[in-house]
Specification:
The chain has twelve helices and no strands. The chain has about 270 residues and is an all-alpha fold. It has two domains: about 45 residues, no CATH class; about 160 residues, no CATH class. The protein binds zinc ion (ZN).
Length: about 270
């Protein structure tokens, strides 16, 4: 004996029909939008599952991590530039801005994610004693690295996410939650999309002029290449010129020798 109601319910369970399900079923027939990828898309994403996960971490399906050790070499030089310019108006106003930015992150907000996108992460840094100068140094070092490696990341957004990651890397992310640690600021175990998308792009919009200024002051790869190029282009001496120079030097040496030789007194 078959119950018609049960049959109907089973039919709906195995063939869910709704606007989202229809969109997913159409989307997964399309290829992943990442360059050179032939996989089919995942869910409602523009990308396949692996490119979706890379996108969520780096802001671009072909993005990647640039670990702090890669731009460590710039940090010492940028730090020296800061120390030599403590009264520079750009440096002073950049530090002033970051001081206010950190204070704003700590201010009260009704929003679960804090006063602005990424403020939870900024509070985490503050709880580890990170200063506005530390943040500025990290941003400028990373920016100078990008200046020297213009193809390191695929686009502007991936660079902004790199800036966000550079700032976030200044303090550890505690792996396990306890109630006490949650009270520090309630940051998530992994950086949130809103933080990655918020911090770097904001810093670029506010401080890019100062970043450019610092990058131009650092002995960049470009400048080192220019010095090498000038050395390669320096005029070469012709063999004749070398011979003449040697001959002139020899004549001068003889003249000095003659001048230095005491003239014997003629017997009187
Ligand atoms: Zn893909």
């Amino acid at each position: 004996m078959t119950n018609p109601t049960t049959t109907t319910i089973q039919h709906h369970r195995f063939h869910p029909i709704g606007p989202v399900a229809i969109a997913v079923s159409q989307n997964i027939l399309k290829p992943c939008k990442a360059h050179g990828c032939n996989e089919s898309r995942s869910g409602l994403s523009l990308y396949c599952s692996s490119h979706t996960s890379i996108f969520k971490r780096y802001g671009h399906p072909n993005g990647r991590s640039i670990p702090p050790k890669d731009y460590r070499s710039y940090r010492a030089e940028v730090s020296d530039i800061f120390d030599a310019n403590t009264a520079h108006p750009g440096y002073v106003s950049a530090l002033d801005y970051l001081t206010k930015y950190m204070a704003r992150a700590a201010s009260d907000s009704d929003d679960r994610d804090g006063p602005f996108r990424g403020s939870v992460e900024i509070n985490r840094l503050a709880s580890f004693g990170i200063t506005p100068r530390d943040i500025l140094l990290e941003l400028c070092s990373f920016w100078t690295y990008l200046h020297d490696h213009p193809r390191a990341l695929p686009d502007l957004r991936a660079e902004d996410w790199g800036l966000s990651r550079a700032v976030m890397s200044l303090a550890p992310r505690l792996r396990r939650y306890t109630s006490g640690r949650l009270a520090l600021g309630g940051y998530s175990p992994k950086p949130k999309f809103s933080s990655l998308d918020g911090i770097g792009s904001h810093m670029r919009s506010v401080l890019s002029m100062f970043f450019v200024n610092v990058a131009m002051s650092v002995t960049t790869k470009e400048q080192r290449a220019l010095v090498t190029l000038q050395a390669l282009k320096a005029p070469l001496a012709s063999p004749t010129a070398v011979y003449l120079a040697q001959a002139a030097a020899a004549t001068a040496a003889t003249a000095i020798a003659i001048a230095a030789t005491p003239i014997p007194h003629s017997g009187r």
